[in-house]
Amino acid sequence: MKIERFYDENLAHASYAILSENEIALIDPARNPKPYYDFATKNNAEIKAVFETHPHADFVSSHLEIHQKTGAQIYVSELLGADYPHITFDDGDEISLGKIKLKALNTPGHSPDSISIVLYNDKDEEEVVFTGDTLFIGDVGRPDLRENVGNMKAKREALAKEMFHSIQNKFADLKDETIVYPAHGAGSLCGKNLSSDASSTMGKERKSNWAFQELNEGEFVSTILQDQPFIPKYFGFDVDTNKKGATAFENSIDAVKKLNSVDQINSEEMIIDVRNEQDFKSGHLANSINIMLTEKSKFETWLGAIVSPREKFYLVAASEDQLDQAIQRTAKIGYEQNILGAWTVNIGLTERTNHLDIEGFSNNKDGYSIVDIRNEGEVKNGKFFKNAITIPLHELRENIYKIPTNKPIVVHCAAGYRSAAGSSILENEMKNVQVFDLGDAILKFK
To answer: CA nearest 305: which of 210, 395, 404?
Structure first.
């Protein structure tokens, strides 16, 4: 038997391929199925099963596409009510794969329909549990994603109580030696204190994970609901998309229209410019938002936090390679169908971003309206400027009216990435006032 972990750092998402004999089962596959096909080819094996631990909020899964291409059966909880062909997989259900066995464990809490999957080896010994978004390394999944997003509603308090009982009861019979493989690591918005470790054991989690400590139900619910991260605009859309099953990845990105000229862009529509901030500030198109795309950036998260699932936009980049990367990463959250056109920027860049005199600002902070676009939890730990107006980046477009216009505006975050996006948003909307990006100069004021 072999277990292969596939990890997407941008979304902090882990998926898994389980190989036994010449048969493969996938757990929570990402949007692009090619790595799983390559794994199957390399091992001269067939993908026989795809397990979805729940309908994910933070990425679009390829479960339906894999089923359509390979004939692999999709296994999900009956509680999900999936709209695609599937086999229900709940408490007591099990399947064989090569010489191993996979058994269902209903573990609601992150969502009402969450399951974990217990793997028994060829000696019928419990060896691994794939916990989806229920149990993470050092934390558990947040229970507040089904209350106000998507069509599949559930109250956060009710789910928090279900999580308490899942942790207390559903995992109770698993051995201390059982390896824990979750669907997310540090940086995911599906929990708040996730470890960067790739795996753990049930024994380690019972000793160190706060959720296994001696708490009554009320204490557990209070703790889990406190200080959860923000919810990006796209989360509900992805839950609904995953319940239906997404279109094929390659077909979807191939359908994105490549533009040859700036004249093909409707200047009234939003533009997402993924170039680095220096190039963007030197020249960009009107109505552009600068969400930088780098190898390790959270581009997908911030695109889906700033732009709603109903909004159309153009995508522009510095090169064909960067443009293709941007389209593929946009597709990871299901937004590729929102792209009106994609273009490699070279001419027509008439807009310039104001340059901030850092020394002048430092000596006269009261002469500026300072906008802190960090998240609520960051601001709770302390403000850099006592008179700053706090509006998180994901809420900025809806709350521009709260920013005074009688002074020049300076936007800051914690390190510079988000402030590039925030300042570009304000530039578009506030034509009669100067807008400056403090950028990484914020580090001088910490």
So the answer is: 395
For the stretch 31-71, pLDDT in tens is: 999 999 999 999 999 999 999 999 999 999 999 999 999 99
Tokens of 324: 């293709």
Closest CA to 136 of 29, 67, 208: 208
CB 45 within 8 A of CB 73: no
User: In this structure, what DSSP letter does residue 169 have?
Assistant: I
Q: Is the pLDDT of residue 348 over 80?
A: no
Could you tell me which residues come within 8 angstroms of residue 382 by beta carbon, excluding any fewer than 6 positions away? Answer: none
- Closest by CA to 36, choosing from 10, 18, 57, 58, is 18
> Strand pairing partners for 5?
16
d(CA 243, CA 223): 29
CA pair distance 109, 322, nearest whole angstrom: 39
Positive/negative CA dihedral, 68, 304, 302, 330: positive
Q: Distance between CA 61 and CA 46 in Å, rounded?
A: 19
Q: Which pLDDT value is given to residue 147?
A: 82
Nearest Cα to Cα of residue 252 among 28, 31, 20: 31
Q: Model pTM greater than 0.90?
A: yes
Report, in this order, helix, strand and coil percent for the chain, each rounded to 5.
30, 20, 45
Nearest alpha-carbon partner for 108 in 84, 139, 132: 132
- Beta partners for residue 442, in sequence order: none
Which pLDDT belongs to residue 146?
A: 87
- Dist CA 124 CA 50 (whole Å): 21
Q: Which residues fall within 8 angstroms of residue 240, CB to CB, at 6 or more apart?
A: 55, 150, 151, 152
Give residue 153's pLDDT band: very low, low, confident or very high (50, 70, 90).
low
- The SS3 call for residue 256 is coil
Cα dihedral sign for 169, 173, 174, 177? positive
The full DSSP string for 262-319 is GGGS-TTSEEEE-S-HHHHHHSB-TTEEE----TTS-HHHHHHHHS-TT--EEEEESS
Fill in the amino acid letter for 401: Y
